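Appendix B. One record, verbatim.
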Amino acid sequence: MKNFLLTFFLLCCTSSLYAQEDRFSDIGQIRGKEVYITDNSALDVAFTIVDGKVKPIKKNKNANITMAGKVYSVENDVYNYKKNNYVVLKSTDGTILLKEEDAPLYISSFVSKTYWQEKYDLYRNDYIFFDFKKYNQVHSKNATIKYDDLTNIEWRGLEVTDKGAIFYMSEYNGANPLGKFKVTNKFFEESKDLIFIKKDNIQPYVEKYNNRLAKEKRDKEIADSITNSKLRLAIALDDANFKDDDRIINVHKGDTLAIFSYKALEDKFVARFHFSNLLFKSDDIEFVDTKSTTTEGKYSWDRKTIKSSADADFLKRKGDEGKVQRFEVAAAYDDAQTEIYINRLKTAIDNYNKDVAYKRKNQIFITGIGYDYDSNEYSSRFGMYFDVYNCFSKTIKYVEFTMTNYNAVGDVQRDDMGRASRTVRGIGPIEKEEGGRYSWDDVFWDDRSVIKKTRLTHIKFIFTDGTSKVFSGYTNINKHMSDNAWD
């Protein structure tokens, strides 16, 4: 019993092995198959039907038949003639009969095309990708790439030979196959899942492809982030005023602006300045990275200077893309610069308040004083100017100045007109903590050059309420002058 089972198992295995080959071991295996004939050995025992009778082909003198290199369809049913069973082979050239009993004489020249056709159909449905990087001899540069290493392939048919099968294929370009090539079944068997990729096995390629896309996307994001994080500065070419809600923002010529976007429809750049977003025309600003290129012509008037800015071009190209990040960079710069600006303002205000307090406490009312020469040809004629600051709590209506001349030895000196001193009146008003300048030409004439100096020796302030305040004597008045009053 054990020997029987072992024999049965071996027979099953043998049958299975034969089922996996393209050759036949017995006549029953060829029925219903397509076969490829490798040589003409079967002609020696082949028959055909002439006038309803089965006759050997060899005896038909008019027949010039070859079986080698042809494919025949073997019918399932046999043809019976005079107690003989014949295998029926059909092709486009006609019908050939072979006796079953002669199978040992011809079956070895039969190759199962059906076997290869079934393989072909299986492969054609499953192996639809081609790793061209591993077999680039047949790859077309115009093929449609999928997942970096793969292209789609189309199976274009097969050819059976005595050595096996040849598969014809081509790559795809969009919807059209191109680059026809062929491979032997042996090469395909060795290359499948390595060069020829099954549709169920492309996940590693998809993952690699997606990883590359993700890396490229991330690299681009990093590159864009680095590019967007660059601070783009421009200089205001003129003074400008902007209204932002309830406040007026003054931009002065030469101020530095942080530019972060561009509005193409308005041809305006968007700048962050003093906590606000301001619009500037292209002609109103000049980017810090601006370069000038000068071309010489044949004549001087052909000389041209062209200015270009990579930052301006970048912003125009990007538009709103990446604007949020550039805004953050520009806003951070503006925050720091505006804080410096505000601190300077605070310092200036503090200094001003200290100066006002000092002037009020010490009643400093002369902040500027000097000689004022007229523009005529008489250089010996001169006057004086006074910068007056109202350090009082009342509005000044008039200011009367008395000026006295002195010679080189310190005595009072008269001018050419006999005037040792003169009193002039300046008209206000000058409000509290405000100032004004008064000046007079030709107050004194000194053609002899005997006047060494002229001093302010008396000053009277007349206020709008009718009251007045008087300061006399140069030494006393000098106490009420700022340290840098004389020019």
